[in-house]
Known about the structure:
7 helices, alpha/beta
Amino acid sequence: MNLLLKLYAISSKSGKEDQIKSFLLDSLADLPLSIETDGIGNIFITKGVAESYPCFAAHLDEIHAPCEREVIVEGDKIYTVDRLWNRVGCGADDKNGLWVIMNLLRSVPVMKAALFVQEERDGALAGCRGAGYCDMSFFDDAMYVLECDRKGASDVVSVGKGGTHLCEPDFIPQDLLQKYGYEMVRGGKTDVVELKMRGLEIPVCNISCGYYDAHKNSEYTLFSQLRNCLNFVLEITAAELKI
Ligand SMILES: [Zn+2]
């Protein structure tokens, strides 16, 4: 849980992701990773060498305005408050996704990860600017892209905004969905939906990672549900999928 508390304490408003990027790169410095960045500030990580890789995505930014915040743990529930003890958003959307990827990088021997900046809408600026900008060739040797950036604990989004087809309904085996309490649903937009809209052909999906009240001051996470998401993704990565 410690890593998650450190992530929540860092403000990472869209376009101001430098601090969270530094924290991330420092935390991963002991791992043998190939790390690249691009002109807009996205981070691309490759671990190990393979012909094709399981690939994961998350976004580095959050919607909330920067402020000094303290992380509160109440049993399974985690949230943040400001110096006056008012609730403020913790940026679980999408630090929970980052937490999953940072854990995967420690236990999966061969994988790729795309960490995008500026996913959130910002005034007149559209969302998914990092995913809209990136060089798609990073995904040429990826088997699929799993993003953990969905509220709640039970959704695998297989159809995104505007009816965008993300993956087949049986992409993840039914017994695996049942074991972890997930089901295939329709959902909204995030980075992997943008990648599909740009023509990415491999399967992608967006998976619930235990956060609630995203974009609100009352945002919180149920840690057991985030852990369940990590275990689900680990087992997907180990499974034979229909791809
Ligand atoms: Zn998000």
